[in-house]
What does this fold into?
Amino acid sequence: AENILMALFRNIERGQTPEKLAENDYLMKCMMRMLATVREAIAPAHALLLDHLAKILAEIAKNPSNPRFSQFLFESIAALVRYTVAAQPDSLAAFEQQLFPPFTMILSQDVAEFQPYVFQILSQMLELHPGAAGLPEAYASLLPPILTPACWENRGNVPALVRLVRAFLAKHQADFKCVLYYTYTVLCTQHRHNRNNRTKHPH
It folds into this structure.
């Protein structure tokens, strides 16, 4: 399976631009299905595969051009996380180390097409942390930004954001008041924004 996956990467990575990399969604769909087929057996090769997936993600995020390719890429990442961590729980830290930089870039540069996928995989990784471990610091730093009105104005983000907030609460009940405070701030800000718009543009 590893040889087949590497052959797929070689074909995909022939593209020299973000658009060319994402041109053939069939190749990325094959990768996703291969990972779903071999499941935990792929764990020994996860580091090499993750390196390729993360680099492809960072590149195509510069100019998203093929939604189907993007979907299959994120589903491949999610499958690799799921099956590898099931076989090797200690590998979770490596996934976070490799994925947080492109994820942070996507969120900071407001790559709207990718944000729902990023929130879903962040939720997935956070849920895989042992409950007794509490809320990892890297995730805690994401809480204020994801509760800003701008994140929630994109309806496509909402289901993934709800899952992520639930994961926050499940991992650190002590932060419940913090979450409520930020949520209250978001709602108040959004209410003022809507009221100002009505004032400026009365019917």
Q: What stands out?
A: The mean pLDDT is 83. Residues 176-200 form the longest helix (25 residues).
